[in-house]
Amino acid sequence: MDVPFVDLKAQARELHDELAAAFGSVTSGAAYTMGPELADFEAAFAAFCGAAHCVGVSSGTDAVKLALLGAGVGPGDEVVVPANTFIATAEAVSHIGATPIFCDVDPHTALLDPDALAAVCGEREGMLSAVVPVHLYGQPCDMDPILAIAEEHGLAVVEDACQAHGALYGGAAASSSAIEPPASLSATEPPAAIAAPPAGAAGPPAAIAAPPAGAAGPPAAGRPCGSFGVTAAFSFYPGKNLGALGDGGAVVTSDNAVAERLRLLRNHGQAEKQVHTLVGYCDRLHNLQAAFLSIKLECLPAWNTARREAAAYYDEKLRDIPGVAPIARRATLDEPVYHLYVVRLLTGSHEEDTDTDLAERLLADELERRDRDAAELEAGFDDPGLVADEHPIAGLPGVDQRTLPDLSGRGLHDIQSRGEARDEVRERLAAAGVQSGIHYAVPLHMQPAYAHLGYRLGDFPAAERLATQILSLPIFPEITRAQQDHVVAALVDALS
Questions:
Q1: What is the pTM (predicted TM-score) of this model?
Q2: Cα(257)–Cα(274) distance, rounded to whole angstroms?
Q3: Most exposed: 145, 236, 337, 494, by fewest CB within 10 Å?
């Protein structure tokens, strides 16, 4: 049996007639941008998220970028980003001329760790402008302490909900320390000027507008991801819980002024035809994609329910398998939507490695390397044979080679080598017809693109350890129990 990682063909078959009718409607009207289909979808999705406004944009990455700009973040600012997330979160920060400041994650949930956030805020008091909690894998971040920390330090909260369409946060029904244990364990140019963030940007919106007639409102229990920050970004990449037939994204907010600024920014800063109030972007969500998304939005609650049921089935089947620990969820009223179903593989010498870090085993060697690197670099500056292109970013405008950190990739290579056992399991799964993924194999602070920030192996031990252990199993609304049984059996065989 072959089990795909995600089955987009099944969704296309289910909705073929409705999607074809939407295509015919849009093409017959020949209005492809900024049309009625976009306005209808924006109203429906804002109501679904419990927000007053939705601004459709061209991709999830652009949504994060515009969400930051809408919140008043700009060139020279520092923004806290979790080390375990897709690079697009950090890229968006970089694209607007700001600097990502990485932060460790909770070792059990893989989400932004409020304690680590508090520590970063203390270390960089007065230097930070915003924090981006990422509701990774469709799991809500622990927003109550994050909001409190942001308010204490004057940070705007910009949610990255690109994997969390419809996820609900249960709040203080239980503290973040109440973690449900796994079953097997006890750049473009930024606009010239952006208005300052509105007062109280770090807190949740004061009021939620009533949904328009006929629109699907947010679920009754819990609070939707995307309704906490001054802005929140969503992605409609095809593989998301709510996916377009191409790229797409949206920013939601309950601040009228922020919404107006976002609408300007996505459409060349144009308030009226050929009158441009801001230096903006061409970041529009096309009408055709908006029409497709409106159809899919009606199905999303049922699809999310199917994902939760599939995740519960995995939980039960994996409960007694040694060395397999599903990523934990907080033991609260949270309702994840399982964009991804992620497990940790605690194989071999790492099986008991739940409370120690990878860095401890490498610390002595790493300190020795740092001293040796410093000596080598100092000697190299006087060596006429040392050329600029020995470093990947040396020679670029504004880059001073003498300030470059060690770019030898030792930390990256260590992370990758520590994940080889997991990678072998993936190969065996593939041989059994089971597709899988890794989200994510390299923490952001170890990415070559961010080597210039000077982070080192050991800076974020939880994210580093997770990068060597995590494995994403197939999950999608249409997955059958027989397919899941095959995945579990193949995983057991692969581990043995």
A1: 0.82
A2: 21
A3: 145
Q: Which residues contact 55 (CB under 8 A, 6 or more apart)?
A: 42, 66, 250, 251, 252, 253, 259, 262, 263, 266
Architecture label for domain 8-168+176-300 = 3-Layer(aba) Sandwich (3.40)
Query: Is the domain defined by 358-495 classed in CATH 1.25.40?
Result: no
pLDDT means per 10 residues, the chain with 496 residues, are: 96 96 94 93 97 98 98 98 98 98 97 98 97 98 97 98 96 44 36 35 35 38 91 98 98 98 96 92 97 98 98 96 91 88 77 43 51 57 40 50 48 85 96 97 96 94 96 98 98 95
Residue entry with tokens 């606009």: 191
Q: Which of 179, 190, 462 is nearest to 330 (CA)?
A: 179
**pLDDT for res 415:** 86
d(CA 159, CA 69) in angstroms, rounded, equals 13
- Asked whether 341 and 315 are in contact (CB, 8 A), the reply is no
Element containing residue 3 per DSSP (H, E): none
